[in-house]
Structures are given as C-alpha cells and as structure tokens.
Amino acid sequence: MPDSHPAPPAPRWTDDLALAVVFMTRLPLRLRGAPAEGAQARSMGWFPLVGAGVGLLGGGVHALALLANLPPLAAALLALAAMAWATGALHEDGAADVADGFGGGRDRTRKLEIMRDSRVGSYGVLAIVFSVGIRAAALAALAGPLEAVLALAASGALSRGGMAVMARLMAPARADGLAARQGRPGTGTVALSLALSAAIATAALGMAAPAALAAAALGGWAVAALARRQIGGHTGDVFGAAQQVAEAAVLLTLTALR
Predict the structure, then answer these.
(1) How many domains is the chain built from?
(2) Smallest Cα–Cα separation from 59: which of 201, 154, 193, 196?
(3) Of these four, 168, 191, 212, 216, which has the most CB atoms within 10 Å of its CB?
(4) Does residue 158 lie in a domain region?
C-alpha cells in the first residue's frame, strides 16, 4: 500500500539560509516557492555565514594570485574584485549612495531622494575609491595567503553581523524601502547573527578576534549613528555602507596587529 503521508517539510532555517544567499550574492540558487512570512527578517541571522563564504572566495583568488607570483597589491585587488562580483557590488553601491546622499543633500528628504537615484556622483565615486583602496592596501600588507584567507572570512562575517542589530534597534528611514519591506528581526535572529560572527572570527583569528570584533562594532556603530542623525533611520544603502566601513576597520586592525 503506498504511503499516503506527505514528506515532512524541510527545516525552516534552511529556507532562511537559502534566502540569505540569494539576497546577498549572485549565486544561482533557487528558492522553494515564495518566502514565508518573516523569512526576510529571519534570513539576516545567516548574513555572517554568507559573508564568510564571500570572504573565502576572495581569499582563494588572493592565494592563487600570489601563487602566480603577482604583487601583493594586485592580488588584493583581484580578491576584492571577485568578492564584488559575487555580491553584485551590493555593498559598494550602498556605500556610494550613502556618500552621495549624506554629502549632497541639504535636508532629510533630499538626502533620501539622492540615495534612491541610480546615478553616482563625486562623493559616491570617492567612497568606492577609498573603500577599495583602503581594503586592498590592508590586505596586501598581511603576511601570506593563509592569513589573507582567514582575514577575509572573518571580516566578511563580522562586517555583516551588525546588520541584524541595526535593523532591530533602528527604524527604517522610509516606509517603502527595501529595508522596511525586509522587516524587523527578532531577538533570536540577532543572537544568531552575533553568535555566528563571533564563532567565525574566533575560529579564523584566534587571539585577534576580540580586537577585530570591536573594530567591526565601532565601524558599524559610526555609520548607524551618522544615519540616525542624517536621515533618522536605516535603509538598505546604510547597511551597505556599514558593511564596507566595518570590513575596512577589521582589515586595518588585523594589519596593525601584525
């Protein structure tokens, strides 16, 4: 007699993780139907794991470039290019929009209008130049391929671990934006994000993990405080800017600790 019982559904966390991968990267992963209610907010708990994966990709490219006897700076730039490709330059675009909006807008309404504009202005260009330049210089100063791989994995996780915290503690700056549609994560999601960030950083960096965690937290807090003052809350672009600043802060800290 055929079994009439339907197969048990897959655990909800696997769907949330898949959604995080789809949202944060360009990987051709298919979702099983439309996201369930609250899934977008819950997926933020898995952002650090996705970020670590992006960092490992960049670290692999960096190691191959060094093995090909390329200069450290060229290897670092290739690593960052691979990471930008994997994410569709999602965070770089956000940082550019924030720089244009905060730098060029005279009031909150105008700042939000500029941030929504797809064109990139002089402030945005400079933001990308400085973000790539600082991260590449810090990465090039690290000792060797393995150290760079671990640094990129840790910075990828730590720089995304604060997004759930920002979404939990700050209100969206606009009611119709991507960040507002994503929803407010629960305390369990925030705890998962922070736990994954700390675990990945500890595994990758050992004794340097607390300093890297502090650097990421300080960088994210600085962007969050600026966004609260400039536009009264967060947007998807603010998340991107916070990620770029936090990642740069972690890489600079690890370079200084060498």
Answers:
(1) 1
(2) 154
(3) 216
(4) yes
Q: Is residue 33 part of a domain?
A: no
**pLDDT bracket for residue 29 (50, 70, 90):** confident
Burial class (CB in 10 A: 0-12, 13-18, 19+), 83: buried
- 38: how many CB neighbours lie within 10 A of its CB? 15
What's the rounded Cα separation, in Å, for the pair 111 and 106?
7
This prediction's pTM: 0.92
By CB neighbour count within 10 A (0-12 exposed, 13-18 middle, 19+ buried), where does 109 fall?
Answer: exposed
Cα gap 196→202, rounded to integer Å: 10
Q: Is residue 248 part of a domain?
A: yes
Residue 113 lies in a domain: yes
Find the mean pLDDT for residues 113-140.
95
Q: Which residues form the domain of 209?
A: 45-175+182-256
Dig out the tokens for 225 from the structure: 């405080």
d(Cα 40, Cα 47) in Å, to the nearest integer?
Answer: 11
Sign of the torsion formed by the C-alpha atoms of 128, 19, 168 and 249 = negative
pLDDT of residue 123: 96
C-alpha distances in Å from residue 157, one per residue of 21, 51, 116, 201, 205: 13, 5, 27, 7, 12
